[in-house]
Specification:
The protein is mainly alpha-helical. The chain is about 80% helix and about 0% strand. Helix 1 packs parallel to helix 3 and helix 2 packs antiparallel against helix 3. Keywords: Membrane, Transmembrane, Transmembrane helix.
């Protein structure tokens, strides 16, 4: 196995585990339904970079076929694209989640137990300030 691919995989593993843990904590504090926590985290951290990867490969394939682009990417391009998209995803989502948890932990933790206003109450509240809020039970 190529040492470059192995090294990129090891660095990506550590970055993914770190970012996924922070994103999962952030999502778990924000979402009330525990079944959606895993799905939301997986889509953000694992599916999103692969969708971008495939989209870029489709664009490159179209450039080669339609416009006669003479560039034929080799394996370092594909490894670099995979590594770059993965690291960018980890940094963006991971740092946003880390920042959200560090700054707003108490609000996020209490958000689950705070009663929300009903839709009717929110609509009436916007139209007139003298209308008492309607809280859903």
């Amino acid at each position: 196995m190529n040492p470059t691919v192995w090294l990129a995989g090891m660095v990506m593993l550590v970055a993914d585990v770190t970012a996924i843990s922070w994103v999962a904590i952030s999502v778990a504090l924000s979402i009330k339904n525990p079944n959606r926590i895993t799905g939301t985290t997986v889509v953000r951290m694992l599916v999103a970079p692969w969708i971008l990867y495939i989209a870029i490969l489709i664009i490159i394939g179209m450039m080669i076929k339609v416009f006669g682009w003479s560039y034929e990417p080799k394996w370092p391009f594909f490894v670099g694209l995979w590594f770059g998209l993965g690291m960018v995803t980890d940094l963006i989502y991971g740092l946003m989640a880390w920042r959200k948890v560090k700054r707003n932990f108490r609000e996020l933790a209490l958000q689950r137990f705070t009663p929300k206003q009903s839709l009717l109450g929110r609509l009436l509240r916007r139209r007139g300030e003298n209308v008492p809020p309607v809280i859903a039970g």
